[in-house]
Amino acid sequence: MDDFASALDAARAQEDLGVSFVDGRYIPGIHDPSFIKSHPGNGDSILDTRFSTAKTIFDALSTAKHTYSRRVWRNVTPAEKRAVLLRFATAIKQNAHRLATLDSLEMGKTISDATQDAHISAALITYYAESIDKWFSRKAVTASNSLAYNTFEPRGVIGAIVPWNYPTCNAALKIGPSLAAGNSIVVKPSEHAYLSTLLLAELAHESGVPPGVFNVVTGTGETSGQQIASSTLCNMITFTGSHATGKRIMGYSAASNGKPMLMECGGKNASIVMPDMKDDIESLAERIVAESFANQGQLCVASSRLLVHRDVAANMTEALCSAVRTRVPGSPLDPSSTFGTIVNGRERDRIVARIALAKEHGARCLVDPSHEVIERPGSYLNPVIFDRVDPDSDLAQVEVFGPVLAITQFNDVDKAISIANGTEYGLSAAVWTNDFKAIKRFASELNVGKLQIRADPTSTSTHGFSLGSEPMGASGFGVEFGMDALNSYSRLMSVELAG
């Protein structure tokens, strides 16, 4: 049996269990004939696309509210919570191939990347399991006959709306701190990739998370997502997705109970190359290509803009074109593939239209879309590189969310900072330099939540999940990652005792 056939069997078996997981059990859904689900690796139909009913979503929110009000999970001791979440993390690792197969089949991520995502998700859950007994409140200085302190209390029912690009990781990023903080949660994964989230709920239940504490519902954003965001049973919304969708969710929240939100709404992230990197051009090009085209560019923190000092621009561009041509799209389920597909044909066609618009606006296409690749069954698209990109153009301002890199030259640090800050987004940036004076400027003046300054193309991140960050502008608000994420999923309460 080939990889596709075995993956299809696994996906259909998962969906046959049910398309919602509420109160510790699977619940069947209703078929949506308007939504056609196909494998982006070959275009073949894969699922009947059954989604949660409005009643099931209401029941999920009500069940979560009931478990929170009854303190079913909230009153579990820190040691017990830690043990349950550690068992959950172990179960994710043990089922990494199952989770990866579902993600690869549904959204076209390579099976190797999807497997890595599963292990990252397990590490995220482990991090928050281990954080539970290391999270402290604060005491104020008072008179001897009184006591005053802050305490972090769970927010209640968390409505988590998760995108399709990293289905398992993005779900774990919200599930981990939410459960560690003592909340109940209802997760709505993307309609394009939801099977792995259902499996996560099953694994959590088997690991000891009480029924009704972690629930999953499915459906489109216009139906299921809107119902969750508009529900007064929900005490907080955490969302990752587009800026346009984020604004709609904020409207639903404001029109209902004004629930707080954590919003990560994408970016137009710049990678800045200074002239002192001239001796590392080839290795740097490989690193930039890896970061720009990870997950086929379908990544909020992808370096979609490259700002290059004019003194190294020619060599940098040549090296980038050479490096990117080695990224050949292959079948997502083939273990040898290193570059997968776009999530579906509609998204691929949208990206191709953006590429055509960039050409019309005068950008020079150095690595073109391959018609041979595009015409393959499925939703394939090779990496594309433009240079001579006007900083004010559509290509430099709008999040493409695909394998398209826009190169712009600059003359000095002032210009680099101006261009980097010249979009409505403020998610992340990277700077490549050894210049200490430049580093000080970039660190204090770039308007982003995540900044990486590197002098060595072979350097890797070593802080794990410990650093939280908050985006700016159209990229959203609220802190994810690190211990600070526990604060995001909690409310700060003050307590005063006087004798």
From TrEMBL:
Keywords linked to the UniProt accession: Oxidoreductase
InterPro entries, A to Z: Ald_DH/histidinol_DH (IPR016161), Ald_DH_C (IPR016163), Ald_DH_CS_GLU (IPR029510), Ald_DH_N (IPR016162), Aldehyde_DH_dom (IPR015590)
Residues annotated as catalytic: 264
Domain (Aldehyde dehydrogenase) ranges: 37-494
Superkingdom in the source lineage: Bacteria
SUPFAM superfamilies: ALDH-like
A Pfam family reported for this protein in Swiss-Prot or TrEMBL: Aldedh
Keyword Cell inner membrane belongs to the record: no
Gene3D superfamilies from the UniProt entry: Aldehyde Dehydrogenase, Chain A, domain 1, Aldehyde Dehydrogenase, Chain A, domain 2
UniProt key word Oxidoreductase: yes
Family: Belongs to the aldehyde dehydrogenase family.
PANTHER family linked to this entry: ALDEHYDE DEHYDROGENASE-RELATED
Protein name: Aldehyde dehydrogenase family protein
Organism: Paraburkholderia acidicola
UniProt lineage: Bacteria, Pseudomonadati, Pseudomonadota, Betaproteobacteria, Burkholderiales
